Amino acid sequence: MSVFAKATASRSARAAWTGVALAGASALLLTACSSGTPAPADTEEPAADTDCAQPIAEGERNLTLNLGTILPQSGSLAFLGPPEEAGVQLGADDVNAVDSGLTADVTFRDSGDTTTDIATVSVTDLLSQDVSAIIGAASSGVSKTVIDQIVSAGVIQFSPANTSADFTDYDDNGLYWRTSPSDVLQGEVLGNRIAADGNSTLGLIVLNDAYGTGLADYTKTAFEAAGGEVVAEALFNEGDSSFDSQIADVTAANPDAIALITFDQAKIIVPALVGSGYPGENLYFVDGNLSDYSADFAPGLITGAQGTLPGIDTEKLGDFTDKLLAVDPALTDYSYAAESYDAVVLLSLAAYAANSTEGADIAAYLQQVSGGCGEGEKVTTYEDGIALLAEGQQIDYDGPSGPITFDENGDPTEATIGIYEYGDDNTYSRTGDG
Length: 434
Description:
- This protein has 13 helices and 15 strands.
- With 434 residues, the protein is α/β, with parallel strands linked by helices.
- The chain has two domains: 3-182 and 320-403, Rossmann fold; 184-313 and 417-433, Rossmann fold, CATH 3.40.50.2300.
- It has a seven-stranded mixed β-sheet with strand order 7-6-8-9-10-14-15, sandwiched between helices. A five-stranded parallel β-sheet has the order 2-1-3-4-5, sandwiched between helices. The chain has a three-stranded mixed β-sheet with strand order 11-12-13, with helices on one face.
- Strand 1, helix 3 (81-96) and strand 2 (102-110) form a beta-alpha-beta unit.
- Residues 1-49 have low confidence and may be disordered.
């Protein structure tokens, strides 16, 4: 069986596996979140699938891994572009600092948002440069516009920030991977947090795309399972500039809390919403709009508002954040930087393990080097991983974004969802993990 056939076969049972994997991951997550404390020390990691492990390819390495990115330099998620691109560049720098016989070269391109065709133009350009993998997009909606183009070319699409559950069972020939968890998990944390804060009713203002409606559904399910009631839900489309009708519809129901499942449209919605008389402290944000609003809102506008963001507390990783700032000294936000860094390292480890830069060959080893296949030794750096792979040993890479442990769908089976709160200066700080 060819390596491509192995990668494809590993996804053949994905529909049956999806429910089990998500249920297991959700149970692990909620165990950790139910009391606001970490899971008990004896909580077991998801068991690795030993059947899918394959030997590390032999031979000398003389590989150039060409990577492209479609991360948001413009559009409604442009605030995520700098930390993601810094994470990618730092990952490539760390790979290239090791004399492993593999060099990572990165070409950066813009993804735009779903109101433009920038992503398609960028992907077409990157494919013409024979990239092995494309990192991005950040937006699930944008990724949906280019995933078929990428995987049909035999190239890996690896997103550090896509959270739509639709990608779990997407027909991608085993070539779509992500280091961010499905919104099944973020929705559970958000819905339960809103209920735990004593809110009985909830209103939702939601971006009408794969990301927005999916996350809204999972938030609603969790909130109602906790005994709450969603009393209003208003949708808007990417490109809309006025949200008066959505605000009026939701505030008319007088909900205890309002969750904003948007991108940077929050810059318009929030002042108008609070200006209408709704308390800023009763707002809840998500990863698409959890941002520094110190330059956008009047001081104190959203003091006490909360939000969720997948990922560990990157700001506590002093060495990692210092290295990010060396790449981009202007960074003030680190959202998805760690996930972007780990995307580069995992792709490089898998390419080394395969001794190939063909997309399908790399994909066949991604689950394995993440610890989702076999019983590999834990490593936390590219250098340590290469040292073991060079000896033909299996590895289990855990990076700055935390344990990843891919399942056969290309989804991480372990995740932490951070809970944040806004202060008087309209910047946010982490208050706990879900």
